[in-house]
Design a protein that fits this description.
44% of the residues lie in helices and 5% in strands. By secondary structure, it is mainly alpha-helical. Strands 2-1-3-4 form a four-stranded parallel sheet. The chain has a three-stranded parallel sheet with strand order 5-6-7, with helices on both faces.
């Protein structure tokens, strides 16, 4: 039989007092009904003998010693699904953020800490430490390869530091760092729609692990650096590409730190995909799938849907996918939209070192995907993509994981031979552009 917890009524609840002073209108800590709605839908429930309801009650009861340096705050992805279902709108994710911040900085997870510090070392903002010069070189090198090896794309551009461009484009470091060919489909899409865009050597890095580290000073510095770079180039739209936490870190960071963005819209790219299709600038075709009947589902990235731009973005995501694969070949997860489950890629999980817990956390997502029976899961977010791909490998699932830009370029018939890394054998050689051939390693 579990022993009753004895509370020291004379002990001051320091952490609770700090929360109530710092976040008086957002935490609503004293309104908790202990209903358990938060814990019932949280994939982190049970990890390290903790769950959201228990965490909130321990904070409210002043159990600071028991919570001090508790690892569960790094096992919670801060996806805010608990906030979404809470009848009292208690911001548990904000409490977790402050609990992370209470750890001595040098004792926070080394992977998250290292990625934050790497981004602070130069003005590129890259969490992989890719410098401004190296990024510009990689972009130019890959562009030269396209010009030389892909007939019909001799005029493709990938501008850097173009003054007065309409769009300032962010880029997750994963592409220039380890998968540079993955940048090409996006360039082709932007070329087809006639977008006026540019990268900036300053602040191009589209990720922000300082946010996951709960380092306010560094989060603000990286976000401010990138936004100011876009403004100095005279851009009108800061366009976040398919990276959920980069989108949220800039969008939320601008608000949280009151960063001036005069004449600069901060926007995610998924609604632009949908807009360009509706306007006829992008004309994806699902004809390739009329007889094959390859099936697709999609992940709703927490950072782009529930935490920021809401269900309209989720609806646009489905509209784009259906245009590419055929409405009858799309199978939705249950639940979905803002009520969808986090996959376990967010919150810094992939860099936290808690790999066993991360894979356990992701079981709900794995089961959701398998329940659809879909052959492919589309993930317009890098951390979702990485986690869902890793879940398939770990649990020996047969589904494939692809970026949205890959699917769009594939359906347009412009996806080059070297840009097919995440296509399965059923699609690898299909819809190949004229003059392109798969190499042996593909």
């Amino acid at each position: 039989m579990t022993e009753a917890v004895k509370l020291d009524k004379g002990k001051k609840a320091v952490f609770k007092e700090k929360l109530m002073n710092k976040l008086p209108n957002g935490v609503n800590l004293n309104t908790c009904l202990t209903c358990g709605a938060c814990a019932s839908g949280c994939p982190a429930t049970g990890l390290r003998d903790m769950d959201p309801r228990k965490f909130v009650r321990m904070v409210a009861l002043g159990m600071d010693e028991e919570l001090h340096m508790h690892p569960w705050v790094w096992l919670c992805s801060q996806c805010q699904r608990c906030v979404y279902v809470c009848p009292m709108n208690i911001d548990i994710a904000a409490i977790v953020f402050e609990a992370r911040a209470s750890w001595p900085r040098e004792e926070r997870p080394k992977g998250i800490l290292g990625s934050c510090d790497m981004a602070m070392r130069n003005t590129s903002g890259s969490a992989m430490g890719i410098s401004e010069e190296d990024f510009e070189w990689v972009v130019g090198d890959i562009l030269d390869e396209v010009h030389e090896n892909q007939p019909g794309w001799e005029d493709l551009e990938a501008p850097v530091n173009k003054e007065g461009a309409h769009f300032f484009l962010s880029q997750n470091s994963r592409e220039p760092g380890t998968e540079p060919e993955e940048m090409i489909p996006l360039w082709k899409i932007l070329h087809i729609v006639g977008a006026d865009w540019t990268y900036g050597t300053r602040g191009w890095g589209g990720e922000n692990y300082c946010m996951f580290l709960a380092d306010d000073e560094s989060w603000e510095k990286t976000a401010r650096n990138s936004i100011e770079s876009a403004k100095e180039l005279g851009c009108k739209v800061y366009l976040n590409t398919e990276c959920g936490h980069a989108t949220y870190a800039i969008w939320k960071g601008q608000q949280k730190y009151n960063i001036d963005k005069t004449c600069l819209e901060i926007a995610p790219i998924v609604p632009y995909y949908a807009k360009w299709i509706r306007e006829g600038k992008l004309k994806p075709s699902s004809d390739w799938n009329k007889d094959l009947k390859v099936t697709f589902t999609c992940q709703d990235p927490c950072q782009q849907v529930r935490k920021s731009f809401g269900d309209p973005l989720a609806a646009d995501l489905r509209y784009v996918i259906k245009a590419c694969v055929g409405e009858e070949n799309f199978i939705d997860m249950q639940p979905n939209y803002s009520n969808n489950f986090c996959c376990g890629g967010g919150g810094g999980y992939l860099q936290s070192g808690y790999n066993e817990e991360r894979l356990k956390y992701g079981e709900i997502k794995k089961d959701q995907i398998l329940a659809t029976g879909a052959d492919y899961c589309v993930t317009p977010c890098h951390n979702c993509h990485d986690q869902i791909h890793k879940l398939a490998d770990h649990y020996e699932c047969k589904y494939h994981t692809i970026h949205l830009w890959t699917l769009i370029a594939f359906s347009l018939g412009v996806l080059g031979a070297t840009e097919r890394l995440y296509l399965g054998p059923d699609l690898k050689a299909l819809n190949m552009p004229e003059g392109q051939e798969l190499e042996d390693e593909y």
